[in-house]
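Lab meeting, action items carried over

1. Structure of the three-component assembly. Owner: GW. Status: complete.
Input record:
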Amino acid sequence: MLNAISRPAKIRIARALVIIALLIGALLPGFPVLWMLSSSFKSNMDIFAYPPALITDSFSFGAYAAVVTSPEKLRFFLNSYLVSMFVTILTLLVGILGGYSFSRYEFPLKRPLNMVIIGVQAVPPITLLIPYFSLIVFLKLHNTYAALVLTYMVFTLSYAIIMMTGYFNTLPRQLDEAVMIDGGSSFVALWRVLVPISLPGIVSVGVYTFMLAWNEFLFALTLTKTTDMRTVPVGIQLLMGQHSYEWNEMMAMSVLGCLPVLLLFLFFQRYFIAGMTAGSVKG
Amino acid sequence: MNKKLLSLLAAVVMLSAIVAGCAPVAGPAAPAEEAGEAAGETITLEFTQWWEPELPEGSFRALMDEFEAQNPGIKVELISGPYSTTREQVVAGAAAGTMSDVVGLDGAWVSDFVKQGSLASLTDLMSQAGYDDSQLAAQIQLNGATYMIPVVNFVYPVFVNLDLLAAAGVENPPATRSEFAAAAQQLTESGENVYGWVLPLSLEQPNGIQNDVMSWAWASGGSMMKDGLPDVTNDQVRSASEFIKGLWDAGVIAPGSFSMREQDKVEEFTNGRVGMMISSLAHINMLRERNPDLNFAITALPAEDGYDGKRGLPYASWGIGVSANSPHQAEAWKLVEYLMSAEVNSKLSSIANAFPGNVNSTPDFVQTDELFAAAFDVFQTGYLANEFVGLPVAENLMREFAEQFQLYLDGSQSLDDTLNAAQEAWMAHFE
Amino acid sequence: MSVDGRFAANPKTNNLYRIWKRVIPYGYLSPTILLLAVLSFLPIGMVVYYSVMDNVIMNQNPVFVGAANYVKILTDGVFQTALGNTLYFTLMSVVVHLILGLTFAMLLNSKLVSPFTRSVFRVVYILPWVFTASIIAILWRLMLNPNGVINYLLEWSGLVSQKIEWLSSRQLALHAVTFINIWSGYPFYMVSLLAGLQGIPDEIYEAGTIDGANGPQLFRYVTLPQLRPIIISLAMLDFIWTMQQFTLIWMTTGGGPGRVTEMLSTFTYKLAFSTYEFSLASTSAMVILVLSMFVALFYVRRQRASDA
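Predicted assembly:
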């Protein structure tokens, strides 16, 4: 009460400090990406000019035009979106079930299974390449979306399960016990109570899964064959020639690729609203 | 039953539905191919290469269309990937039994693919087809059989920036090592942030050892081999190394060498920050396009003072080979033969700005473009020298040499130790 | 209606209920197990098999050699250098990732700032995440080039008098690639922790404030313990992933200059696709797997503890 007068001032100072910190911190991700954006508008020569400039005389949308007028490249984008979306949805469904099991149950094989799930992603992919590729060919999945979707699920599922286990572990068990006392099954407890509360966690796992599938290169290249099945990272690598790179087109393609992803994130980040879960825990 | 089990079942079913459901949607190419084979009339040749993305859009496909028109019953499916990963893709494809019928090859890979058993002997295919191989400029042979034919060749002469040379007071492009060193010195002193030479020694893409280091020995008639075995401690490699170390210590080499690649090197030259570079002819058009004001010329790689023999000229090829497991080897050979024919080879050389692999081909640009004409002179007065072609694990040899050479240049290792270590590392692959 | 509830309510069917209860957790995991069994066990099994043969793929008739490859790898000087570099690279990355990720998550969660401002900043802060690794490598190569923008800014501001060869210097290259990895990886922590922060009920903070706790105390006694399960999961995953980080290193330094940025991943790659020693590469992969499993073991133990 004594501080009543200075309290708004204090908050204002604190707010200013937070904003200043946010602005300074934003340089770390912001500047390199700004540089990428600037490079995408430059001529290939000016990208290496010294002294470097943010905007040069060669400013043009040429690199973007080259990307969006190529049906081949647009197909890369379509493929990437389709694959990433399928991977994200399936990984979330399967991962939530798995995470729930690890978080809420004790069972004899729990530790070994947990180790196995972690272990499958601890083998460097480059050594798995040939046996895995042979398996995909054997399953007649070579050059299909299914090959990519299932492969990325193998990569992302471990992560999704581990993270979902972590999020569920932060939620009190009384929540689902309350459901069961009311006569609900564990499945109802999961989907009606835990999943809605864990939406922030689910969104963050989903976003990451999407990014991982979106950015993967090695398997995207190996498991597909024809140009109409390639994804964006392969398309970017195709601009890295034997003797020279198309620097500005590579940058333009990355910028174009990231825009929809950022919009998606902008939409979903509203689930990160502080205190959203507090009410339900109380109730 | 109950909800849990049902929903679990549903999840499993969904998963398998995805597996099953995606397959037909996914690969329009696969069913078409199988249908074709079932009909028994049209054969589809798969051709894996990195050339299509390097060439003007649609131009390589046009050549294939012409081939298809000339050979009814054979279709060509181009499978294009980035150059840097083609090698891995071929190894993996061969191991999984999905290697294409025809593959683009780099001379540095041939030995390893032959060892893996993935390439067919072209000598056999040529004799089956009754082909006269005298028109081929080169064949890459191992154990007495041909496995790769260079389709087009990119030679690596010295590019000089004429304006920088003039500003530095250098009148003629250097012809000897001492002239080169002097010119590099003058260039470096002539302006801020201008250097005489640029030396890419990246360990990721170690072909700088081939193009920018060993080439100095080859240009003076030297060799890094003796009786088919490594011999990097000989005088010629030694003097080339000492020469480069001299340039390094004089500070006339542009900074950043140890992580620089060929693709970075050329940008330094484009921006007029280096006066001289050893580079691929493939760069001529790129330089013109990226910096139309750049005034540059081409000259032979300088030789040791007093050397008047023929000069070895480093080169890289787009080579071609046929899969050992291809069921259509005869048709595959037809495609190779087509690409090597005088007329088509001229065309391909012209669009790739490379020198032809057929001795009777003459690309247009040799007549119409004076820079290429100059390069053609260099090419004809010298001989093609790339001792890495056909060696086992060739790229790794370059990398091992680069690792040692970096230590030598930055002063943490003597020349003797460097060359001995490289020799030892190389010998391990020749047992 | 529901099975659990009905069984629980009826003591007579208790035995059946117990059996059912034992099956449930496996049921929830069955899609995962199915997928991994089909697509993961076989290839990994092949890698294990490769690691005990003399050589494969390049060799039509491989011969069993037992632990010989393991002896060869573990006594290889380059492997030991790579192991040391990898540990530095990984531990630095994990620690700084956590610090940065947590700091940024707290800032981006601050209720002092309007939701709109927060969402704009959130988008900016996740930027490093949305690019494929090869483009991140290319971008940083451009910026760290001796003639790149970073050197220009440093010279312009008078901080350095000479251009620095960040990626070509034997003193700096390892730190430079570590920095690039930190840059590209912190959003993973940030977003996950941001999500984790939503799970902490405001009441706990309010109660703490009433008890007279200040900001740092609230952080230490409320925020950190609440986030612990997530932090542990994140750190373990990040450790395993960073150990395998390949593209960023390969495309910036290729393991050089000399061997200063040689990592287990680049070492393994070169064995596989530069010298075609697929068996030795598999052996090296197995060593990476075993190292990762140590960390996993720690995680699984904690997992148990946090349940209790």
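2. GW to write a short summary for the group page. Key points so far: The two ends of chain C are 30 Å apart (CA to CA). Residues 14-51 of chain C form the longest helix (38 residues).
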